[in-house]
Amino acid sequence: MPSARVDTAELPRTAMHRARTGPLLTALGAAGVLAFALLTPDEYNQHVLMWVALNAVLAVGLRFVLLVGETNIATGAFYGIGAYIAALCTVNFAVPFPLALLAGAVVATAVSAGFGLVTLRTKGPYFMLISFAFTEVTRLIYTRINYIGGNSGIMGVFPPQSLDPWMPALTVLLCGGLILALYLCERSDLGRVFRAIENNDAIVETVGINVVSIKLLCLVLASFAVGLAGALHAHIYNVISPGDFSYLVPVFALAYVKIGGDSHVLGAVLGAALLTLVAQALEGAGALEQILFGGAIVAAMLLLPDGLWGAGRRVLRLLLRR
Amino acid sequence: MRTLLTWAAVAALALGVSTAASTARADDDVIRFGITAPMSGAAASWGIGADWVGQQAVKWINEHGGITAGGKTYKVALTTYENGYNSADGGKAAQAMLNRDHVRFIIQGIGTAPVKALQSLSERVGALMMQDAWGKSVKGPQAPLTFTCANTPFELFGPLFDLVKRQHPDAKTVALLNPNDATGQEVEVEAVKQYKARGYTIVLSAWYERGTTEFQPIATKLAQTHADVMDLSGAPPADAGSVYKELAVQGWKGVKISSSGTGSDALVKVGGASVEDVYMGNAADFGGPTATPLQRQLNADGLKALGEPVNILDMAAWDSAMAIKAGIEKANSIDPKAVAKALPTLIFESSYGPAAFGGEATYGNPQQMLVPIIVTQIKNGQTVEIERIIPDELKQRLAKTQ
Amino acid sequence: MGLFAQLCINTLQIGAVYVLFSLGLTLVFGVMKIINFAHGQFFTLAALLIAAAMPAFTVQFGLPVWLDYLVSFVLAMIAVGLLAAVLYFIGFERYLRDLIGSFILSLGLLLLLEGVYLWLFTGSPRVVAKILPGQVSFAGGAMETQRLVICGLSLAFTVALYQFVQHSRLGKALRAVAEDREAAMLQGIRYRRTSFYGFMIGSGLAAVSGGLMAPLTPITPALGSDYLTKAFIIIIIGGLGSIPGAILGGFLIAAIESVAGYFFDLSYATIAMFALVIVFLLVRPEGMLGYAQR
User: Fold this and answer.
1) How many domains does chain A have?
2) At what angle do helices C266-283 and C243-263 cross, to 10 degrees?
3) To the nearest 5 percent, what fractions of chain A are helix, strand and coil?
4) What is the DSSP pairing of strand B146-148 with strand B30-37?
């Protein structure tokens, strides 16, 4: 949907209403989630909330690069790099928590810049497959380095004890902030350039914009967010290992985006929330877990082609018309 | 039509999620036991078997008056959580087990990586864990609520390698193969140490990735060393069977050891004749004359229910359940910390007979269940017991109570 | 000499399975321009059904082992064929040429089917009885007799498929659609029908390779997924959509695995393979023998 900038004074009242209610509802929703994070005593719920927040950033980060038309499976590699760097900082070097998070994000961003420089010349299925291979190579390299624990990974990654009760709220704030930042980028002029590139990059080049540079910028921004989320991941799960960062991570993120609805950021968040909750509810159910989770994805793909967000809008439109 | 389907899908999803979420509520009169184990893949037989034996133990406890503590009688329920034999899934299983379902007594944990992931949480929330991970660091004063319910390489390898040396005095060289995971890494270190201490030369210590399907290249590598002894160490039964099969095809002959081998069934199924005479360090013949009547009964029932005989890891679930019952009743409380203090002081009725906890000299805390060390060999496709050793510490403890 | 022969034999054995499996995947991509993540599930189902059916037949009818195998094989192919057809009409048909959509759908199918297999067959590895006893040796290297036979069958299937694609009408239609869909349609080739046949053949190849693999390895519900990653590497290096490419790529990867697995650790070999993939995609995205899709 093109973000039309219209003079609001000229709009009929209902449209003006709609222009404000969206952000208002979102802000209310976010406040509600934050309150839940601060107030819920149940440790399990706290953890599930944090997992949802992390997966939401993954989904939004992946979707951000989808805006330029690229399926970036290397999201998994950058998430993992953020996690490992932050874990090493905390466990091996006793770096203060905020710096550890930042270090994770920065290194992930740097690696993504290098990756993008080399690979963004390719497009579509080829970029997707390269990014897939890159994630797997990174994971295999983790298993071969004994310093970072090899196959067993790193254990005992804890945030400072004083922060323990605040972790859920902190996670929600940080992840929410990252999502908001990416959304604002999307709504800005830069976002329009992204969409133009996705539409027809040859034409964009003719206007004098260096397409590969813009794609690189897009990738780098998304990777910062994803890297920071990875750093949080390490401190929330307390145990990380190479198997946590395989290609399945970004592939699931892609599922969150598709099922939630790729037309809007909140679709990605919704998809992440729903599928994370379903996965957790099914934990311990054995084979049923895979059947229901896989079945949910298949059902969503077959019945809800524009995702839950799109379905929700259709339903809303139907209701409002009455 | 589309909208109808949409509504139906959303409603079904919501119903499904809320139903699943609401079924996991804690029950006051029930003590919840948990098991974390792999239920699929090459190590599946360990999890499936442990779950079955655990359920038998729980049934027995419930039929014999439950567990009494603090003036209240409790029933017991067991849930087994799939840990995927890796730390990521193990961590998620841990969250579900400890925080969602409020399990406070874990009667078996299989797989070093997932057990360590579980441990960082279980020690924090105060849950008592019985497990069989083979890393030394899993026990000790830093982890007071973690106990081991079966023998580990520290107890097993010595007697096993001594026996092999006695029966094959001419063997000088050893080749090892381990999976490249936490279990393999811990086992390899101890195996190398124990072999070297007995004068063997390690000609190769090879690794393979879990999920490998084609074992010929690894078998070629191993066969080319012409080692006298082949030890497939920490490889799960199905993988070990494949490797022995390939080794036989490529013409290697020698002394075969599966030091972490838990039983002949999967090995024989996959390896066929090639696994004849394999020595195993962690197996037992629970259907044979040296087993107790209880073990023979469990084995017979297990054979009918699972199509496989019961192995040591499975049987440990029974022993753990009985140990915890005894611990709760001695401490007269269902607080895991109190139970943990009580366990080293008592003698309980395990499936092998009277058993206790010890191992302070090795681990710093008496957190090792003292059960017989059994060395076995595969003869005619069956697990045959060759030697049984009662740990000295157990003998002393039992003598004291006479 | 013995070592070299053994390494060659290993390559041949491993490659024979990889090739057939990857052929199916590349065919599906070439014709439908989709990546079927659940390709391995056809492989697994065929193997599981054979492993489950064979003991039943031996008990019920007392047939010799090889006949058991044959009958089970045919039944497995029929069952998998039905599954493939169902999946095509319910799902994949809607996502033709939609790379991401079909990818996610097939991801869901992978989880769903693996879960169903786990539930129906449990996670314990299943083994198929030995069909042909004994082993053979060449120049100092050795392999099981039944492996040799199965290898041969696999290669025969591969050659047959190659001939089919090169010379038959449908084969040419498949190639035409893979090369340029619109031009093919202009020539009167019915796209939807050709897609369907392409999918059935591709999935059939996965099933055949699963069936051939059944006697050679312990079978678990996760078996297909293990092969899938390798298959991706192979079809990328060989060239997406290229049949001779899949054959060449399959043996190349098998060779790397066999040789590097011997001299180094296998995980380094896998890293090398993925690095090779990246290099190919950057420098020569059409793979060794594929069509350029710029």
Assistant:
1) 1
2) 140
3) 80, 0, 20
4) unpaired
Total length of chain B: 402
Is residue A132 a part of any domain in this protein? yes
Domains assigned to chain B: 30-150+291-371 (3.40.50.2300), 154-280 (3.40.50.2300)
- What was the pLDDT predicted at C42? 94
Chain C nearest CA to A93, separation (Å) = 29
Strands (E) in A42-117, as ranges, are none
In this prediction, residue A17 has a pLDDT band, given cuts at 50, 70 and 90, of: low
The strand pairing partners of B105, in sequence order, are: B33, B128
Average pLDDT, chain A: 85
Question: Are residues B80 and B111 in contact, defined by beta-carbon separation less than 8 angstroms?
Answer: no
Taking every pair of Cα atoms in chain C, the longest distance, rounded to a whole number of angstroms, is 58
The predicted-structure confidence for B261-319, as pLDDT tens digits, reads as follows 777 777 888 888 888 899 988 888 888 888 899 999 999 998 888 877 888 889 999 99
Q: How far apart are CA B189 and CA B168, in angstroms?
A: 23
Give partners of A (≥3 CB pairs < 8 A): B, C
Domain boundaries, position A156 = 29-245
**Of A180, A156, A159, A176, nearest to A37 (Cα)?**
A176
Q: What ipTM goes with this model?
A: 0.82
Nearest CA distance, B376 vs chain C (angstrom): 23
Q: Which residues of B touch A285 (CB under 8 A)?
A: 20
C123 in contact with chain B, both atoms CB, cutoff 8 A = yes
Q: Please name the member of A119, A254, A291 whose beta carbon is closest to the beta carbon of C115.
A: A291
Instruction: Give the DSSP H/E element, type plus range, for residue A214.
Output: helix A211-237
CB burial of residue C182 (10 Å; 0-12, 13-18, 19+): exposed
Other CB atoms within 10 A of residue A301 CB = 24
Q: Give the count of beta carbons closer than 10 Å to the beta carbon of residue B65.
A: 9
Residue A109 lies in a domain: yes
Q: Do B121 and A238 touch (CB under 8 A)?
A: yes
Residue-wise DSSP of A176-207: HHHHHHHHHHHHSHHHHHHHHHHHHHHHHHHT
Instruction: Tell whether A278 lies on the interface with B, counting CB pairs under 8 A.
Output: yes
A141: in domain? yes
Task: Compute φ and ψ for A122, nearest 5 degrees.
Answer: -90, 165
Q: What residues have CB less than 8 Å from A89, skipping those under 6 apart?
A: A95, A99, A100, A103, A104
Convert the pLDDT of each residue in A285-296 to its tens digit.
Answer: 667 777 888 888
Which pTM does this prediction carry?
0.82
Low-confidence ranges of chain C (pLDDT < 70): 1, 290-294
Q: What would the DSSP string read from start to end of C147-168?
A: HHHHHHHHHHHHHHHHHHHHHS
pLDDT digits (tens, 9 = 90+) for B198-231: 999 999 998 888 778 788 888 888 998 999 999 9
Max mean pLDDT range (A219-228, B30-39, B106-115, B146-155): A219-228
The answer to whether A203 and A43 have CB atoms below 8 angstroms apart is: no
Buried b (16+ CB within 10 A) or exposed e, C49-65: bbbbbbeebeeeeeeeb
Nearest to B6 among A238, A278, A304 (CB): A304
Residue A217 lies in a domain: yes
Q: Report the run of H or E that residue C241 belongs to, with start and end.
A: none
Task: Give the minimum alpha-carbon distance from B207 to chain C in angstroms, rounded to a whole number.
Answer: 7
CA atoms within a 13 Å half-sphere pointing along the CA-CB vector of A57: 31
Residues 65-94 of C with CB under 8 A from A: 90-91, 94
- The whole-number average pLDDT for the span A47-55 is 90
